[in-house]
Amino acid sequence: GQLVESGGGWVQPGGSLRLSCEASPDVMFNYSAMGWYRQAPGNERELIAQITTDGITLYADSVEGRFTASRDNAKNMLYLQMDDLKPEDTGVYYCKAYFGHLWGQGTQVPVSS
Predict the structure, then answer these.
(1) What is the model's pLDDT at position 17?
(2) Residue 62: which of 47, 50, 52 has the closest Cα?
(3) In 2-111, where does DSSP find H-type helix?
(4) CA-angle at 60, arms to 76 and 65, nearest 5°
(5) Exposed (0-12), middle (13-18) or buried (19+): which is 70, by Cβ within 10 Å?
(6) pLDDT value of residue 96
(7) pLDDT, tens digit, 9 for 90 and up, residues 24-76
(8) Per-residue confidence (pLDDT) for residue 43, from 0 to 100
(9) Secondary structure (3-state) at 87
(10) What is the pLDDT of residue 10?
């Protein structure tokens, strides 16, 4: 099974990005809660958003109200809409499938002016 993130890139403070995470066909995507994690430079990887198989979401306080996780089970796709980005949102963003403990390779999101 494989997870592949995309959509990262440099953005100015206040800007928006939409990250995607595509699960390969052999990932039990429809049966797996999914998570988005962020690793800032020099810091440990932290959980920022979770979404259950039926779309219930939970967010870290640091991103609540600015980030929105969603999923399309028919397409094996996970998304993270990030709005009003701040410099402290800078980091490498990873998706994770809890069923099978799979991680993506990460996508960089630098937020700076």
Answers:
(1) 98
(2) 47
(3) none
(4) 85
(5) middle
(6) 97
(7) 998 889 999 999 999 999 999 999 999 999 999 999 999 999 999 999 999 99
(8) 96
(9) helix
(10) 97
Q: Please state, as a whole number, how many other Cβ atoms lie within 10 Å of the Cβ of residue 19.
A: 23
- Identity at 43, one-letter amino acid code: N
Tokens of 50: 């979770």
Six token digits for residue 58: 């939970």
| For residues 12-18, average pLDDT | 98
66: tokens are 């600015």
Q: To 5 degrees, how large is the angle CA 26–CA 79–CA 4?
A: 45
With H, G, I as helix, E, B as strand and everything else as coil, classify residue 89.
Answer: helix
Burial of 106 (0-12, 13-18, 19+ CB in 10 A): middle
Name the nearest CA neighbour of 91 among 42, 57, 34. Answer: 42
